[in-house]
From TrEMBL:
Full protein name: FAD-binding dehydrogenase
InterPro entries listed in its UniProt record: FAD-dep_OxRdtase_2_FAD-bd, FAD/NAD-bd_sf, KsdD_DH, Succ_DH/fumarate_Rdtase_cat_sf
Keywords tagged on the record: Flavoprotein, Oxidoreductase
Gene Ontology molecular function terms on file: steroid dehydrogenase activity, acting on the CH-CH group of donors
The keyword Nucleotide-binding is assigned to this record: no
Coiled-coil residue windows: none
All copies of domain FAD-dependent oxidoreductase 2 FAD-binding, residue ranges: 4-538
UniProt keyword Oxidoreductase, yes or no: yes
Length: 557
């Protein structure tokens, strides 16, 4: 079989590349080891956040942003320190992406059919100092439709091309080898898997029915990272983050297995920055799981108190929503914290009603369903916790509540018997924090962050509760949430130039081979460096898919 372009993977980055190729009049063949229910890949499950700089939405909420500020934040967060080799192309991709986010991105996504809500979230609020990790201002733009609203327009374009005979969609096709002829990648070989009608995200059969081979002028690796393969996560877990937890949960389906990176490496590609990962510390077990070890990330406001498994309050920057990798590092290297695999949020009903959101399209039905009335009614004027959060309160194995601290700690100890908590230790720390509420100023870094956040109109209206005592009975009941490390993103990957062309360890081009999305470290083998600013994973898929698709068109036509 022959085609112009083969794309391995039907996730967002692969679909964007396919859309570019289709628009140029080339024939594309998209291969995926899963069934058609999984079109859109990981992006379908996401919250749909996009990093955009100096947008009308920001300006409407009185946020002043600029390329200069965003690029400064990015460099301070990325901390590129391998500029002679592994970061050589990553830093170029990073600057190009921030320029894209500050200039063309918003108008381009609108042209593609992606519509933004007026909400701009403040993700990764930072480690507490200028010149360090974090977003100086809110930049997390939420899409109508959440992740489905981002992937959907590209999925529909490819489906329409398939109906028109301009594209082939070959599901249950698992690529096992890149065909290399005289140093050029000229196609793929693999296995046709037996039919499997499993629902989206469910682990599928790997029974082989037959073999296939397809020849093309270009091959694009769009297979994602390693987050669903805990063996690989542990293999590449860096010493700087301590020991990997014995128990983790998964924020991605099992098919996110690292197979595309292995394909590229076997063909001579350079896989770089494998030790850079993005795993969340606010993971909770899904009470209604779809894939193995299915976890959900809490998107927390800044008010919940965070304790390690022994009941010690986490120091800054271990504050909710501030510094993902800094908190992970503390939890896995601090002698007290690293003795166990879990930590705790302690909060109350008033906090959970306003500050708890859950990541994922299925956890945000109002946004996913484009229900503007429900967003206003439930998120601005709603009483009680949002329905998906309330469901976790009722069914989730990691949630406990009580009217008293004594009762709460007893329930915490019941669901985490391996690390028994002392009520008085928690009480002293919570009461000490509560004493900081009375004034509009404070020596407590978390209270300072809460008050700073409420100066931002978006947070004050929808995200951050007014300062109050956690132990105030009127704000109760008290709630505790057991938190797990949730595997999510690979920040390294196949090294690529600015056209998405894959490079060898010697720096030469592997002609005919391209990589996009997470498989390319979101560009260049790791455009985020050591830290992400959020909204940049979907954005990185959009940008790398577009860049590679356009480069292929210029090379092939």
């Amino acid at each position: 079989m022959k085609t112009d372009v083969v794309i391995i993977g039907s996730g967002l980055s692969g679909l964007v590349a396919a859309a570019e190729v289709i628009d140029a009049g080339l024939h594309v063949t998209v291969l995926d080891q899963e069934n058609s229910n999984n079109l859109g890949g990981q992006a379908y499950w996401s919250f749909g956040g996009l990093f955009i700089v100096d947008s009308p939405e920001q300006r409407h909420l009185r946020v002043k942003d600029s390329f200069e500020l965003a690029w400064s934040d990015w460099r301070d967060s990325a901390q590129f320190d391998r500029l002679e080799d592994q970061d050589a192309w990553a830093v170029k991709w990073a600057k190009a992406y921030v320029e894209f986010a500050a200039e063309e991105k918003r108008s381009w996504i609108r042209e593609q059919g992606i519509e933004l809500t007026p909400v701009v979230g403040w993700a990764e609020r930072g480690s507490g100092a200028a010149g360090s990790h974090g977003n100086s201002v809110p930049r997390f733009h939420i899409s109508w439709g959440t992740g489905t609203g981002v992937s959907g327009p590209f999925a529909e374009k490819v489906l329409q091309a398939h109906r028109d005979g301009k594209a082939d969609l070959c599901f249950r096709h698992r690529v096992t080898e890149l065909v290399v002829t005289d140093g050029t990648v000229t196609g793929v070989r693999g296995s046709v898997l037996e039919p499997d009608a499993s629902a989206r995200g469910v682990r599928s059969s790997r029974v082989v029915e037959s073999e296939f081979e397809i020849h093309s002028q270009a091959v694009v690796v769009a297979t994602g990272g390693i987050g669903g393969n805990h063996d690989l996560v542990r293999k590449y877990w860096p010493d700087r983050l301590g020991n990997a937890p014995a128990h983790m949960i998964s924020g991605v389906p099992a098919y996110v297995d690292g197979s595309g990176l292995e394909l590229g490496e076997a063909a001579g590609a350079n896989v770089v920055n494998r030790d850079r990962m993005w795993h969340y510390t606010e993971g909770i077990r899904n009470w209604d799981p779809i894939w193995p070890l299915h976890g959900i990330r809490i998107l927390p406001g800044p008010t919940s108190m965070w304790f390690d498994a022994n009941g010690n309050r986490l120091p800054a920057p271990g504050l909710p929503g501030h510094d993902t990798i800094g908190t992970l590092r503390h939890l896995r290297t601090d002698p007290s914290s690293s003795a166990f695999d879990h930590s705790w949020f302690v909060l109350n009903q008033r906090i959970i009603e306003k500050e708890f959101a859950l990541s994922g399209s299925e956890q945000n039905p109002d946004l996913t369903n484009h229900d503007r009335k429900a967003v206003v009614k439930d998120r601005l004027f709603g009483k009680g916790a949002p329905a998906p959060v309330a469901a976790f309160l009722e069914h989730g194995a990691d949630f406990v509540s009580s009217d008293t601290l004594e009762g709460l700690v007893a329930k915490m100890n019941a669901i985490a018997p391996e690390a028994q908590l002392d009520t008085e230790l928690l009480r002293r720390q919570i009461e000490s924090r509560d004493l900081q509420v009375e004034n509009a100023f404070s020596k407590d870094s978390q209270m300072q962050s809460i008050r700073n956040a409420r100066r931002y109109l978006g947070d004050r209206l929808m995200r951050v509760v007014a300062p109050h005592r956690i132990l105030d009975p009127a704000a109760g009941p008290l709630i505790a949430v057991k938190l797990h490390v949730l595997t999510r993103k690979s920040l390294g990957g196949l090294q690529t130039d600015l056209s998405g062309r894959v490079l060898s360890p010697e720096g030469r081009l592997l002609n005919g081979l391209y990589a996009v999305g997470e498989a390319s470290g979101f560009g260049g083998g790791g455009m985020h460096g050591y830290n992400a600013l959020e909204g940049t994973f979907l954005g990185g898929c959009l940008f790398t898919g577009r860049q590679a698709g356009r480069a292929i068109c210029s090379q092939v036509i």
